[in-house]
Write a structure and sequence with these properties.
Elements lengths: L7 H17 L5 H21 L4 E2 L4 E2 L1 H27 L5 H19 L3 H19 L6 H32 L4 H10 L5 H21 L7 H8 L2 H24 L6 H22 L6 H20 L4 H27 L16 H4 L1 H15 L5 H15 L3 H17 L1
Antiparallel strand pairs: 1-2
Helix pairs in contact: 1-2, 1-4, 2-3, 3-4, 3-10, 3-13, 4-5, 4-10, 5-6, 5-10, 6-8, 6-9, 9-12, 10-12, 10-13, 11-12, 11-17, 12-13, 12-16, 13-15, 13-16
Length: about 425
């Protein structure tokens, strides 16, 4: 039982509660509290990496794979908090509550990727969503921030309702919410029965809800407004960690309980993926706001991930996993550079604010150029290899027409990058 205390989720949960109490006595010196938060992340990352605890309950998993994913998430959080600390200090709005709420959202992400139960998955998603509601509306002096928070809250509540409705259908027709038990039940059901049809409808509802959380088309309406209205530090968080979590959820859901229905969800994911790539690439052309531009870029990149996942092939799975990691760290780098650049004492908002960047911040200009070229898929940068893997997976699966569309959209997206 002692090994349970080495679980990153438990370390973070206990640490957050302790930091909230410590912060009450360090109101005038919050630098110390910030250092303690980063130290907490380092300790959690250490135990996630060495992975002393490997076992599985019926509803929760501790494995080498999930431990390494948690390690990557914790490293990403450490970097994001570094950007956030600098940004909030510059805005003279440094509050430790921002970091503690973010850590609670991170715990929700960890629950999502370790869940072996639909109910546990829902709890993780809700914990993450509640944290994001608060973070998006954190800048109370901004009308755009309040508007974004209300939009995300209303649409997020609808998404959660759709997810719960799908879960209830699955439970009603299979009698279980455990991934492996659902898979066993599906193998025994008659494909022409009402129960089988009910499970398909449940899967469609769950997929729609997860696509909303992923920010994929046609459930992408919230993405540009939320990206624009949030603080840049919140936008970094939104564009990286939740995307990695939802991708892992997609893999576990589709390849464990619903693998028997791959002929259903494969077509859905391919449609959603292509639609996301097309909408993200075309609508980004008309954007003047840098955060809205990167929001549509995110929609397009998410389309690549979902499209590769929908191929239900080994090459497609590898391509989607590789693309998710590359996209997350590229987004982390590009938003991080923008965080450090100041324009008219307000930070960067519009693309025109970047004019003359090579003279005022030459090193940041070079870094931003590299990240944009990588996102555009220009060789030999790493973004090119990620897109190439997706294209190769499409060709291997004989989707030649879809390959042509993807290549054309990549060329179009190179313009706004």
């Amino acid at each position: 039982m002692l090994s349970l205390f080495y679980i990153p989720e438990i370390i973070l949960s206990a640490g957050v509660l302790l930091i909230i109490i410590i912060d009450l006595y360090l109101q005038k010196n919050r630098n110390i509290t910030y250092i303690l938060i980063q130290l907490l992340i380092i300790i959690s990352a250490y135990y996630a990496f060495i992975g002393k605890t490997y076992f599985s309950y019926s509803a929760y998993e501790f494995s080498l794979f999930t431990s390494y994913v948690k390690f990557i998430l914790l490293v990403g959080t450490f970097i994001i908090f570094h950007y956030t600390y600098k940004h909030l200090t510059y805005l003279k709005n440094l509050k430790i509550e921002y970091f503690t709420i973010s850590l609670l959202g991170l715990i929700g992400i960890m629950i999502m990727i370790s869940a072996y139960s639909l109910l546990m998955l829902y709890l993780g998603i809700e914990l993450l969503s509640l944290a994001l509601y608060a973070l998006i509306g954190f800048n109370k002096d901004s009308g755009l921030s309040s508007e974004a928070a209300i939009k995300y809250y209303v649409l997020g509540a609808m998404s959660s309702g759709i997810l719960l409705f799908g879960v209830s259908l699955i439970y009603g027709f299979t009698g279980s919410i455990n991934y492996f038990e659902i898979a066993n039940q599906l193998n025994t059901l008659n494909a022409n029965s009402v129960q089988y049809l009910g499970v398909i409808f449940g899967l469609i509802f769950i997929t729609a809800s997860l696509c909303f959380k992923f920010g994929a088309a046609p459930f992408h309406i919230w993405v540009p407004d939320i990206y624009q209205g949030s603080l840049i530090s919140t936008t970094i968080l939104l564009s990286t960690l939740p995307k990695m979590a939802v991708f892992i959820v997609f893999i576990k859901l589709y390849f464990i309980p619903f693998y028997a229905l791959s002929y259903i969800w494969s077509d859905i994911l391919i449609f959603v993926g292509i639609l996301s790539i097309v909408i993200g690439s075309i609508f980004a052309l008309t954007q003047d706001n840098i955060k809205r531009l990167l929001a549509y870029s995110a929609i397009s990149n998410i389309g690549f991930i979902i499209l590769a996942l929908g191929l239900v092939s080994k090459s497609g799975l590898y391509a989607s996993l590789y693309y998710t990691i590359i996209y997350s760290f590229t987004a982390l780098a590009s938003f991080g550079v923008i965080t450090h650049i100041t324009s008219n004492s307000n930070g960067v908002e519009n693309i025109s604010d970047l004019a003359g960047l090579s003279k005022t911040h030459p090193y940041f200009a070079i870094l931003l150029l590299i990240t944009m070229l990588s996102s555009a898929g220009i060789p030999p940068l790493i973004g090119f290899h990620a897109k190439l893997m997706v294209v190769q997976a499409l060709i291997d699966s004989n989707y030649i027409f879809l390959t042509i569309i993807v290549v054309l959209m990549t060329v179009i997206s190179a313009y706004y990058y």
